[in-house]
């Protein structure tokens, strides 16, 4: 069993080398420190809560180029987050978000130096608000603390799954510049570049002040599917024969004559295959978008006297991400989508060329498939500007450790899009004969049909906080510590889409318009109670008041029992909540598309017709299946002002074992139950209960052809639904973190470590459905994720190795059944376990210069077959595995003074 393997690995670390060669550990002065997960400064960093700490050196040795890579490499990170790599079709393109325990971005709180950032200017899925990982600086990070239990009582809403606290340097003096560049050696592609400069002056001890500023630049080149087509596993190509095949929606086009495709006469011979003209859409299906980022971070500290100090922080980032896509095409059948403003269903008539059309040489009216290649590729440029400024004071007064700050943060996002077809523009150009098929058309005509579209979003947060802590009594077992505080935020969110989206003039595109604000105020208290010399309790309580729904009170109880100097038992119980956010509750609307919708009233009949027509009229046969068994349906989603908060209960039990100063291990079991999850009814729930909820499913009138085909209801044109408190999720697992530190007199310093997360359960249920969906071992939910790492410092050299393991996974049931029906074996229809090795090397033997080399996926292992990713996302890239192949990065850092 894999959990046994983890235990054996931990034991091996503990006895790896004899204790006789251990050098004496340096005794450090004991002082109180700030610890993530409590508002009280402590002497002992090990609290009742499990906290994973990633140091600056560990981050450097990992080879990560961005904060997003650092976070998503954590074994406790999971699915249901967001990565800007795949954000081209997302409502929140150009950004990345963390998701601890696979509970989603809204359950994971991201902090910078213990305080919140503004949410990204676009909400993901038009609902999920989150802080953008890509806006954070990497070079000035001192450490990253990951609090892996619920923390709503300490930090407030959004901390159901845990907290990621990115902690920067507090001061810096000198001038340092660095640069690095990386490339995938697999196909000599996937280029990434990074450059930083950090400058600081002033000494807090001598000058009573310090100020520093850091600038970072990041650049990544794009990568298209065709460039990686050769490395797709042949088995996957056998299971999905369409992979790599060129599209029949082509330029200069195909006629549909008697149910069969026929290339237009001017199609170049090299593009003709099986009688049809083809278009290489894969050359513009983007796996990795082009990205460019600029980040500035600065901090100022001043000591007014021994009891009072001041601080200020300012940060700004700009991210520009360009997504490319194949040119728009014309379909031969009607396309429908939803007008969220009027409630009407919009229709683009199927492309038909009358017999007398100048581009029709057949002598009869024909259906027509066409790609607007003269338009060029579709583009989606997302630019995000994010900033935060704050200033505060901290000091000691009357034995109180006090701190307070006031600040403002914002995120502004602009999306410039081209490639969507204007319904009015196309119908006008077609009726007037302005567009010339198969030719390079006038720029003004193309602009009328494919206008440039602009969407904007802005999120702001004005905030303040004041807190204090002190010893309030001396109990028989030790001092009683207390912390109290208040904080408040005013948040705004406004998303405005181009009016042509709002009028549903852009064919098959959704829209989202939201505008609102809210206030939130909190009061919190915390006690650290020494019950006995060995037993310590953490008691916390927080009350939050939100203007858009009401209030919540959340408690936390933690126990820490020092069995002996080498062994600590610990456990926590927390209650949490997530307040309904602005996109879910304020004025606005969202229209989107529901993919792969199966119509329970028409699919069976469509299957029967397919069997009858597949040999005589294959085009119509396939279309009947697509339109009735796997259709993309326009959907209207409306806010709900009566939403209640999501609520959670979290438990952790574990221990800390430190038999020697050189070896430590933590073992923690967790269980999180979240209920009242805010979601929409599933498409199947809506369709199964269509007759009970009139108006939830919109259908076209029955046509003459429908009646002749034996259908009793018209085709689905749109779905209507709103946000509701709906689902419940339970998840549990085990986290292990083991470290072994070896100091030798002659061979330098060796570190060994193991991080592992073992998923015991991940279950989701919905009202009225007796079947609980169990996700453990399913795509995106591996049973085990683990990292075994070591590094060695010897004189001017440092080297490190990381072994990364992701357990095997089974495709979702529908994908698995589809895979099996195509002749796949059980192993073909699973995602095999995946192990990679990363290496790093640095040299500091030249004065003021550090040279570094890192290699990700050292042995260039191909990612396993992922049939499910293809079915769900139309790509072979699994979100649990990097598609970089072997990635080599070279870097240099120079210290000027």
Automatic annotation (TrEMBL):
<dbReference type="InterPro" id="IPR012910">
    <property type="entry name" value="Plug_dom"/>
</dbReference>
<keyword id="KW-0813">Transport</keyword>
<dbReference type="InterPro" id="IPR039426">
    <property type="entry name" value="TonB-dep_rcpt-like"/>
</dbReference>
<feature type="signal peptide">
    <location>
        <begin position="1"/>
        <end position="23"/>
    </location>
</feature>
<keyword id="KW-0732">Signal</keyword>
<keyword id="KW-0798">TonB box</keyword>
<protein>
    <submittedName>
        <fullName>TonB-dependent receptor</fullName>
    </submittedName>
</protein>
<keyword id="KW-0998">Cell outer membrane</keyword>
<keyword id="KW-0675">Receptor</keyword>
<dbReference type="Pfam" id="PF07715">
    <property type="entry name" value="Plug"/>
</dbReference>
<keyword id="KW-0812">Transmembrane</keyword>
<dbReference type="InterPro" id="IPR037066">
    <property type="entry name" value="Plug_dom_sf"/>
</dbReference>
<dbReference type="InterPro" id="IPR036942">
    <property type="entry name" value="Beta-barrel_TonB_sf"/>
</dbReference>
<comment type="similarity">
    <text>Belongs to the TonB-dependent receptor family.</text>
</comment>
<keyword id="KW-0472">Membrane</keyword>
<keyword id="KW-1134">Transmembrane beta strand</keyword>
<dbReference type="Pfam" id="PF00593">
    <property type="entry name" value="TonB_dep_Rec_b-barrel"/>
</dbReference>
<feature type="domain" description="TonB-dependent receptor-like beta-barrel">
    <location>
        <begin position="347"/>
        <end position="858"/>
    </location>
</feature>
<feature type="domain" description="TonB-dependent receptor plug">
    <location>
        <begin position="45"/>
        <end position="163"/>
    </location>
</feature>
<dbReference type="InterPro" id="IPR000531">
    <property type="entry name" value="Beta-barrel_TonB"/>
</dbReference>
């Amino acid at each position: 069993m894999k959990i046994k393997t983890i235990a054996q690995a931990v034991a091996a670390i503990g006895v790896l080398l004899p204790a006789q060669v251990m050098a004496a550990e340096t005794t450090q002065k004991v002082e109180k420190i700030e610890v993530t997960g409590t508002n009280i400064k402590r002497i002992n960093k090990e609290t009742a809560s499990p906290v994973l700490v990633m140091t600056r050196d560990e981050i450097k040795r990992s080879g990560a180029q961005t904060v997003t890579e650092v976070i998503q490499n954590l074994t406790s990170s999971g699915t249901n987050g967001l990565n800007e790599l795949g954000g081209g079709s997302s409502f929140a393109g150009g950004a990345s978000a963390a998701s601890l325990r696979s509970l989603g971005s809204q359950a994971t709180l991201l902090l910078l130096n213990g305080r919140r950032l503004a949410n990204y200017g676009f909400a993901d899925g038009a609902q999920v608000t989150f802080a953008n990982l890509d806006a954070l600086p990497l070079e000035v990070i001192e450490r990253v603390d990951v609090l892996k239990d619920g923390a709503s009582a300490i930090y407030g809403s959004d901390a159901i799954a845990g907290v990621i606290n990115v902690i920067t340097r507090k001061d810096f003096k000198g001038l340092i510049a660095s640069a690095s560049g990386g490339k995938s050696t697999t196909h000599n592609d996937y280029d990434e570049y990074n450059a930083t400069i950090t400058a600081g002056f002033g000494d807090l001890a001598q000058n009573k002040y310090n100020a520093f500023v850091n600038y970072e630049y990041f650049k990544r080149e794009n990568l298209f599917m065709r460039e990686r087509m050769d490395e797709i596993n042949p088995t996957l190509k056998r299971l999905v024969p369409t992979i790599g095949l060129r599209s029949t929606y082509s330029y200069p086009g195909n006629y549909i004559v008697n149910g069969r495709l026929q290339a237009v006469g001017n199609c170049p011979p090299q593009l003709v295959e099986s009688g049809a003209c083809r278009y290489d859409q894969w050359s513009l299906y983007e796996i990795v978008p082009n990205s460019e980022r600029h980040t500035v971070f600065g901090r100022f500290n001043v000591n007014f006297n021994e009891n009072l100090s001041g601080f200020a922080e300012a940060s700004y980032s700009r991210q520009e991400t360009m997504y490319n896509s194949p040119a728009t095409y014309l379909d031969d059948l009607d396309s429908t989508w939803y007008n969220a403003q009027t409630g009407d269903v919009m229709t683009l008539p199927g492309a038909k060329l009358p017999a007398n059309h100048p581009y029709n040489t057949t002598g009869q009216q024909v259906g027509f498939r066409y790609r607007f290649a003269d338009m060029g590729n579709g583009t989606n440029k997302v630019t995000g500007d994010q900033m935060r400024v704050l200033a505060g004071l901290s000091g000691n007064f009357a034995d109180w450790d006090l701190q307070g700050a006031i600040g403002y943060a914002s995120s502004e996002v602009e999306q410039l899009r081209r490639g969507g077809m204007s319904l009015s523009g196309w119908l006008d150009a077609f009726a007037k004969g302005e567009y010339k098929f198969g030719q390079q058309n006038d720029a003004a005509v193309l602009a009328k049909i494919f206008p440039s579209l602009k969407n904007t979003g802005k999120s702001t947060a004005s905030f303040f906080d004041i807190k204090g802590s002190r010893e309030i009594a001396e109990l028989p077992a030790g001092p009683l510590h207390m912390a109290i505080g208040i904080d408040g935020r005013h948040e705004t969110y406004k998303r405005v889409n181009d009016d042509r989206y709002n009028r549903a003039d852009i064919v098959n595109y959704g829209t989202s318009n939201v505008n609102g604000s809210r206030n939130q105020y909190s009061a919190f208290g915390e006690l650290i109670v020494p019950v006995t010399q060995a037993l310590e309790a953490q008691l916390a309580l927080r009350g939050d008041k939100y203007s858009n729904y009401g209030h919540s009170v959340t408690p936390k109880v933690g126990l820490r029992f020092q069995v002996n100097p080498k062994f600590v038992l610990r456990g926590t119980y927390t209650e949490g909540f997530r307040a309904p956010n602005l996109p879910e509750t304020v004025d606005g609307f969202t229209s989107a598309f529901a993919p792969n919708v199966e119509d329970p009233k028409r699919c069976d009949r469509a299957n029967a017709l397919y069997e009858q027509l597949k040999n005589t009229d294959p085009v119509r046969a396939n279309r009947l299946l697509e339109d009735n068994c796997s259709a993309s349906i326009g959907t209207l989603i409306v806010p709900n002002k009566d939403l209640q908060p999501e609520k959670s209960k979290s438990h952790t039990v574990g221990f800390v074992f430190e038999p020697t100063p050189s070896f430590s291990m933590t073992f923690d079991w967790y269980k999180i139950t979240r209920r009242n999850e805010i979601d929409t009814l599933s498409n199947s729930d809506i369709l199964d209960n269509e007759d009970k909820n009139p108006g939830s499913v919109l259908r076209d009138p029955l046509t003459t052809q429908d009646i002749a085909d034996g259908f009793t209801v018209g085709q689905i044109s749109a779905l209507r639904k709103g946000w509701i408190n709906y689902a419940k999720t339970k998840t549990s697992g085990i986290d292990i973190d083991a470290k072994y530190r070896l100091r030798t007199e002659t061979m330098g310093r060796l570190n060994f470590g193991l991080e592992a997360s073992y998923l015991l359960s991940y279950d989701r249920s919905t009202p009225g459905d007796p079947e609980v969906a169990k996700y453990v071992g399913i795509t995106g939910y591996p049973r085990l994720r683990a990292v075994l790492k070591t590094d060695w410092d010897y004189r001017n050299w440092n080297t490190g190795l990381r072994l990364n393991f992701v357990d095997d996974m089974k495709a979702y049931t529908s994908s698995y059944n589809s895979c099996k029906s195509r002749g796949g074996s059980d192993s073909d229809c699973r995602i095999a376990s995946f192990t990679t090795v990363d290496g790093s090397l640095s040299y500091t033997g030249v004065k003021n210069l550090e040279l570094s080399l890192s290699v990700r996926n050292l042995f260039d292992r191909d990612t396993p077959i992922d049939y499910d990713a293809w079915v769900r996302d139309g790509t072979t890239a699994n979100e649990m595995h990097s598609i970089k192949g072997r990635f080599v990065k070279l870097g240099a850092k120079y210290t000027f003074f």
